[in-house]
Specification:
The protein is mainly alpha-helical and 144 residues long. Helix content is 53%, strand content 12%.
Length: 144
Amino acid sequence: MTITQTTITQTQALDLWRRSLVESVRADAPDLSSRQMAILLTVYLTPPPHTVRGLAQTLNISKPAVTRALDRLGELGLLKRRPDDTDRRSVLVQRTVKGSVFLSDFAGQVMGAAQQAAEQASTGMGAPLGVTAGATMGSAAVPH
């Protein structure tokens, strides 16, 4: 994977995330929580095997929180669980075709949002957030 390094400001990063979320909300797709999306992306973007215990450790959240998120992701068909044949006490979390399609669509939305942001930035029409130069996230001034 090749990624061109680009320096973006905090405002640009937040605006890209906002644009991506707006497109996600507008799409005819499940509305996932941040926790559910973090679990889904972890399962799809990191090498298997994935277990409840492993996901909990990776994300630094409780096993019950992972289980609740997996329940919802399973209902949506985005992930599935099955017993580990080598250790019946463990449950493996697996990818699904529906989950792959969902994330492919989401990646397209993120790429579209990035393209839109780049086009607006090139014309000087970026979305202002009110962050002053040199400000850190803790001191960002957000207009009301």
